[in-house]
Every structure is written in C-alpha cells, then in structure tokens.
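REQUEST ID: PR-0412
SUBMITTED BY: lab tech R.K.
PRIORITY: routine
TASK: structure prediction, single protein chain
INPUT:
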Amino acid sequence: MLSFLFSIVPNWPLILMFVGVVSRLAFAPIQRFVFDQQRKLQEAKPEIDKLSREDARLFLTESARIKRTHGVKESWLLFATVAQIPVFIWLYRAIRENSALANVGFAWIPSLGHADPFFVLPLLAAVLALWSASSSHGFKMTSYLQSAVTFALIMALPAGVAIYSIAAQLTQLALQSSFQKLT
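STATUS: complete
OUTPUT:
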C-alpha cells in the first residue's frame, strides 16, 4: 500500500503523515464513543469520590453501580488505543522492510528507518501526548506518565514511525476538540 501511495505522491514523509491522519480518521467513530465514555466517567466521579475506601470490596461494588447508573462501559475506554496497535505494527514493519523508504532522509533526519538522532520527534510526540491527555482529563499523573512512555517509545522507533505518530496525534487533538464542541 505504501508503494502504491508513493507512485501517486513520491514523498515518503508526506505519505507517512497521510497514513497517520487517515488511520486516526478511520477510528474516529470509536474515539467518539470512548470520548463519551470518559465524559460519563467524569460525571460519575464526584459520586465515586464520596464513597469510603475503607472497605475495598464495598467500594468496588458501589463504584461499579454508580458507573452503570451513569452508563459507563469501562472496558471500552482503552479500545480505541488497542484497536490501532495493528496499524502501528504494520507501519513499523513496512518501514523496516522497505529499503527505499528506510533510507530516505527528512529535514535533520538522515534516515526514516532509524531513530531521530536529535530526539526532536520524540520530544514533539511527548508534548502532543501530554496535551492530548490533559485536554481529555486534565493534568494528572497519568498525563505525565503517558507523555514519558510516548517519549521512550518514539525515541526507540524509526523516525518514519514517529512522523506517522505525530500526524496521528495532531489529528487526535483536532478530533478531541470537535468532540468537545459537539457536547
């Protein structure tokens, strides 16, 4: 598929950005559902926070009841992320196996098949992850953790995957913004 796109637009970085945008848009309905679930969970949070945590079993039972009352389907909250893992793996393999793509440079990056030597892309991806996490549920420890994991992951991957990831994250931020305006 990447070779077909290259026959139309002979620019590997643009193709990787395009794939990032299209893949995120393809998952937009799932992401909208997850966004709605997160909003319902935030609505239930004040009631859950009032519960006593001394009896763990009672706390779990009551918090589950409150979540059901608010229509929260907690098992779906990670679905959008998990559903995109095969796309990420496919792209990683495609970059590693396509020598024409892997040996192309972009801006300061000598090869899309190798990690960014100056860590600009991992840093940008980490900042975007922090922005995305904080815009969906405020600055919390999980936002910083997600940002750190993103940095470490992108730092170790080929720059082509980082370019895809950044385009996908920018699309995600645009989708989150549109979802917030619709609610």
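NOTES: The first helix runs from residue 2 to 8.
REVIEWED BY: pending
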